[in-house]
Amino acid sequence: MSDQPLSPASHDEARIDDAMEDDHFHDECGVFGVFEHANAGALAALGLHALQHRGQEAAGIVSFDGRQFYNERHIGLVGDNFTKQSVIDRLKGNRAIGHTRYSTTGAPVLRNVQPLYAELAGGGFAVAHNGNLTNAQTIQRQLQERGSIFQSTSDTETIIHLVAMSAKDKFVDRLIDALNQLEGAYAVVALSEKKLIGVRDPNGVRPLVLGDLDGTYVLASETCALDIIGAHYVRDIEPGEMVVITESGLVSMRPFQQSPNHSRFCIFEYVYFARPDSFFDGTNVYTVRKRIGEELARESGIDADIVVPVPDSGTPAAIGYAQEAGLPFELGIIRNHYVGRTFIQPTDNIRHMGVKLKHNANRLMLAGKRVVLVDDSIVRGTTSLKIVQMVRDAGAKEVHMRIASPPTRDSCFYGVDTPEKSKLLASRMTIEEMADYIKVDSLAFLSIDGLYRAVGEAGRNGDAPQYCDACFTSDYPTPLTDRSGTSEIRNLNRLVETS
Ligand code: SF4
């Protein structure tokens, strides 16, 4: 899911301030679905709670009781909106899908909050989507010329319109027909009156896993959402696979005309997006992050006294680095976990404090030390600059920055909140210039082959890479149709909503 227009997401003023404090790519959504359970609404709320790291701005659940659909969509955190019994009670029925969202443009508004729901000729249809459709605007323009009226600015609505207009008879065939016209990345859960459907795009860029809760099928973006409800992990939905779950059981299909050579799963899920306790295809994310640190130590080890993570995202890689390098691992920076995104509206005279809202130096650990500082990535460099200064102010003798991914040189068009390419530090500076900019004694990034080794490959296969790594390599696995035709695409975000 992303808001249009399709371009690397730009931030409004308030979001820039947030980004100053949290200079990362952000995954935009998590999805969840459950079929035939007496507490479907509550399970969906718990599942979304476990997926909160994939989107913090809004969340929604649609349930079905065999007669009617019920829709609860709210701006804000899952825990703030789906903990009241009255809310769960309103989500009647034993089937439900849910979505947690991180929007890309402007203020989050309710009309964009998923699951999106529509009454179609064949009955009700709800859809929740993680990813981004790279030709959604082109299709949307064609549909509008034929009379379609779009209610949201979400690319996900394009799926609903294409399903509605399909000439096929059966609902599943209509959805296949719709998805066959779309490009980009999608992990979708959809609910009709008789079916729960889960589907991944032919490249499998975004994750979707299948679980089992005492005979109840569950779909989720990550396995951590299965753990919270006590469901067993069954398997990942495969790239290009559609599973159709009915009262008769689960049917797996491979319905897509587009057939990629192989999976191009987002490698950044391993670096940063996913929760470390999640598994993809049986591989534990935390283990990969530690191996990333080990690779980093082998590739760019340096004489130092301690290894310090930039918490929390740099922690597993720093542990791996320290173990491989034989250096002490120390918490030289302490993170305040209780800073909400909207804790404060920065005014000019406190804005410079920025990063200190979230991080503070543990002086006793840092004073007089040669420090290896490990972070997952550098995006704009704004946070790195401040963190390094903080470590120096605490008395560190040397600061050597080690980054647990290759330089992020390009934008993501597959459902990740990304600054424009020109704002990415690595797109406009050499590594030496970056080191000067963030004022470190040395700076090194993990190589792309090192990253592939950490996820269990021999290295990156240049002819047929095994993952999407486009933000490091600019090798996009799908056409970027809307991007190439931007000049022809009308601005669809004319309506500014204030609530
Ligand atoms: Fe993931 Fe980067 Fe590919 Fe986006 S461009 S899907 S963040 S690897």
Give a quick set of tags describing it.
single chain, 499 residues, alpha+beta, Glutamine Phosphoribosylpyrophosphate, subunit 1, domain 1, Rossmann fold, seven-stranded antiparallel beta sheet, six-stranded antiparallel beta sheet, 19 helices, 25 strands, globular, disordered C terminus, binds iron/sulfur cluster
CATH superfamily of the largest domain: Aminohydrolase, N-terminal nucleophile (Ntn) domain
Q: Flag low-confidence runs.
A: 4-20, 486-499
- How many helices? 19
Count of domain modules: 2
CATH class category label of the largest domain: Alpha Beta
Bound ligand species: iron/sulfur cluster
CATH architecture of the largest domain: 4-Layer Sandwich
